[in-house]
Amino acid sequence: xxxxxxxxxxxxxxxxxxxxxxxxxxxxxxxxxxxxxxxxxxxxxxxxxxxxxxxxxxxxxxxxxxxxxxxxxxxxxxxxxxxxxxxxxxxxxxxxxxxxxxxxxxxxxxxxxxxxxxxxxxxxxxxxxxxxxxxxxxxxxxxxxxxxxxxxxxxxxxxxxxxxxxxxxxxxxx
Length: 174
Known about the structure:
The protein is of the alpha+beta class. The chain has helices at residues 29-46, 57-67, 104-113, 134-148; strands at residues 74-80, 86-94, 118-124, 153-161, 164-167. Strands 2-1-3-4-5 form a 5-stranded mixed β-sheet, with helices on both faces. A hairpin with a 2-residue loop joins strand 4 and strand 5 (164-167). The chain is globular.
């Protein structure tokens, strides 16, 4: 079997594949390797100079690949600069099969640590149903208010359920 490796990058790995982010073990090793390569290719495309991160199909694909296979709710933030280019990504909270606790204070601290001008949130619904709950909408509003105090804009919040995705911004809820 031939394995392909990408040339070493001078940029830091913004999307490391940690054990908890790998696809479920029900996938063959070949399928897991294919997913790793896909995430790597999407990561390189997202780092293109001058390419904004928000609402691109690449962003959606990366989020879907990263969150769809999780068996617990995971809440992440994507930190962006003034031109909406990716600075960093961070999984902030991990929860149970149907709930994740999100603490605005920790989100604000992380945004400031990364010197973000804007942020995109994403979390998954392991049930496979991507429809945002009232709690999802409330925490998004609280995060938006908290981050506004330090001049960080919330551009979107994606909810991923299976291979489907809902954008709170596209629904007019932001």
